[in-house]
Design brief:
- There is one protein chain.
- By secondary structure, the chain is of the alpha/beta class.
- It has one domain: Aldolase class I (TIM Barrel, Alpha-Beta Barrel).
- Helices cover about 50% and strands about 20% of the residues.
- The chain contains eleven helices and eleven strands.
- The relative contact order is 0.15.
């Protein structure tokens, strides 16, 4: 099974899914991948499988990341995109594309507005030549996820967001609307006016970062406002590690790695199953 770009994945999933989930797979962790693949196959669903540059480097590198995703997709006969998340370094983006990633997020959100546009446009030109879809980000999404650390969110204006989406040529647009990376310590304050303005005026599919912990009705509302990609990193990671911990605590005498890893895999499967219920057409 070949990997698809984000654009192609959105097209093939349109009849069965309201949106595409993006699951963090920790650099290509095999147990997480099989847990996700099994659930995607059961629901006949598509998804982005994502990791940040540091996660990929800390595991086995870009070649493993792409190969592991491709092999899993073939094993379960599912359609997915191999997505590089939150990359701001041109070298990292080039390495990901050369290794076979089919989707990248060029994250220039920490840069001045015009510089973000320049970086994003240059990435679009390079990636599109290789058939790779590009997600761009504007505004600062609060919280912490690997390279992304921000105390508070900084939201763009609607005018800035529309200019960014229209001039960069991106395939997916991740605007900061008040969500955050990591676990929510309090109820997020979303800018519904900005979200609705984008829904009515922006033709580029929108991306929601910080999906973990949002109430299901909030996610549903945002999906109906043209958010077509919903990111889940913290939830997948927490499910896997929680499953491992639970097994080690309750079966402390086991020394068989497969037993421990199975517990993490099953925990990820439950999280993915619940998530897919939100994005599938019923």
């Amino acid at each position: 099974m070949s990997l698809l770009s984000g654009t192609d994945l959105l097209a093939v999933s349109a009849k069965t899914q309201l949106a595409l989930p993006a699951f963090d797979v920790a650099g290509g962790n095999v147990d997480m991948l099989h847990a996700i693949g099994q659930e995607l196959a059961a629901c006949r669903a598509c998804a982005f499988l994502a990791s940040t540059p540091s996660s990929i480097r800390d595991y086995y590198g870009y070649a493993h990341f792409v190969t592991a995703i491709r092999e899993m997709a073939g094993f379960y006969d599912v359609q997915v995109a191999a997505h590089l998340d939150h990359a701001s370094d041109v070298g990292e983006i080039s390495a990901a594309i050369e290794a076979g990633c089919t989707s990248v997020l060029v994250d220039g959100s920490s840069l001045p507005f015009e510089r973000n546009i320049e970086l994003t446009k240059a990435t679009v030109q390079k990636a599109h030549q290789a058939g790779v879809s590009v997600e761009g980000e504007l505004g600062v999404i609060g919280g912490k996820e690997d390279e992304c650390v921000a105390e508070t969110s900084q939201l763009p204006t609607l005018a800035q967001a529309l200019e960014f989406a229209e001039t960069t040529g991106i395939d997916f647009f991740a605007p900061a609307i008040g969500t955050a990376h990591g676990f929510y310590k309090s109820e997020p304050r979303l800018d519904w006016s900005l979200a609705r303005g984008l829904a009515s005026s922006c033709t580029v599919p929108l991306v929601l970062h910080g999906g973990t912990g949002l109430e299901s009705d909030v996610v549903t509302q945002l999906i109906h406002l043209n958010f077509r990609k919903i990111n889940y990193a913290t939830g997948v990671r927490a499910a896997f590690v929680g499953g491992l911990k639970n097994c080690l605590i309750n079966t402390s005498e086991t020394i068989k790695p497969q037993a421990v890893l199975r517990s993490g895999r099953e925990s990820v499967g439950r999280f993915v199953r619940q998530t897919l219920q939100l994005v599938m057409r019923h």
